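ok so dumb question maybe but i'm new to this and my supervisor (M.) told me to 'just get the structure for ABC transporter permease' and walked off. so i did the thing. is this what she meant?? sequence i used:
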Amino acid sequence: MSTTSHRPGLLTGLGALLGLAVRRSRWFYLTWVLALASVVPLTATAYETIVDPGNAPLLIRTMENNPSMRALLGPPTDLTTPGGFTVWRVGTFTVVMGAVMAILGVVRSTRAEEEDGRTELLRSAAVGRYTPLVAGVLAALLACLALAVLITAGMVAVGEPLAGSMALGLGTGLVGAVFAGVAAVSAQLSSSARGARALALWTLAAAYTVRAMADGASTQGPLHRLGWGSPVQWMALARPYADERWWVLLLPLTAAVLLVAAAVVLESRRDHAAGLWPSRRGRATAPASLSSPLGLSWRLLRGSLLGWTIGMVLFALAMGSISTGFGDVLEGTPQLALIFERLGGGARQLSEAFYVALLSLVAIVMGILAVQLLHRLEAEERGGQVELVLSTAVQRTRLLGSYLLWATVVPVALLTLAAVLMTLNQAATEDDWGWPVRVAAGAVALAPGGLLLLGLAVFLHGWAPRLSWLVWAVVGWSLFVVWVGAVLGLPAWVTRLTPWAPLPQLPAEQMNWLAVLATTAVAAALALAGVVGYRRRDLGSG
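this is what came out, is it supposed to look like this??
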């Protein structure tokens, strides 16, 4: 009697693994989808309090004739309706955040699961070769579909036309699907979840940069056509609420299908737990710097620090290049001037309001950097490397302190550097070199907000690592308040519920030493309490 072995099909067990991926990431996707889907209709409802439809033609001409405004917010198509204004004001922001959701979701469901050993355990059962990858991608695509449906329904619910709402919703969801495919490909190329996330996010950053360059270029020049090559721009090119071009949505649909197919092909050509890009061979002998926790943390973090530094310098220089013409633009558009006055802490001088608004955003981004640097220690703990380090004569406090040092110093330094670089063009144009000093002082005054966020992260890492997501909830709320709060005219008590709200916004406001010192003291107390908790808890426990 002969026996035959039955090998599972390539997608065997897809339903079960898709259910598992959705279950493991349900709160992650639910939070992202609900937050982004609420921003869009809320902006539409605030239209009449921001824009006078009678002045909309003037606003459109002003935006079309000013490269800096087009690069900052995108080209306006129709500001005479709430839907068209919403696409211009928060459309690109929603598309980018939806892409970030898709990238993080795919990587956590694929490469991160493989890195933690769960995928190998699943493959010991009757599971197809491509099933884990396809299940992780499908979970992200379902989230993108939910985002598209909710945006469409939300805009229709506030009275906007169905066709434009569908174009906006589908465009946003399909661009998210494109970057789900980008993340799937990145997960095959890189040998780590961290590398896959970095590669995919850098691709998104490059696409956004191409969009900004194309929108800022002359509409008659060849550079303007580069926008068609940026997935971030495809939703706007579909022209929601302005004679929709439905065929444009074939671009993200085709790109998403091709990228997912490429990821599946690449997955079959790599070994489990390895990437197609081979890891560099290490040195024969370790440098002396690795004998200390500080040297080890520097070795692990230096790539991230270099990338963040380059990105922040380029961003600051780009924003500084448009600063001198910004005040003239806003002088002719009182509605936009009012928005930037709100963003700028009530500053009457529009140049000051511009810098304060930018600093408020950069301060939150630097808070994200601080938390990310600290969370590298959490990743090392999950991977078991921390136990190996602590098995030597290294104390826990020294190990935690080495990461805490970089997470404290680098974001504050980059925030201050960005403030100086943003004002160089303004200072040279006006021959007033007090600008860098004043705006840098504003950056230093906002720095304790990021330290407070870092202190919360240290506290949670020391006492309740499983609740570390609370830090990202604070970040998300802060971004919402800074980017959309001024547009929606939220109550003051609501907008002040962020770590940065009590701090003075220099040079628009007077220095408030009590707020700065009190915020710093609370941040230090939280960090100290977190260090105590880290010394006491078992590694790997929550």
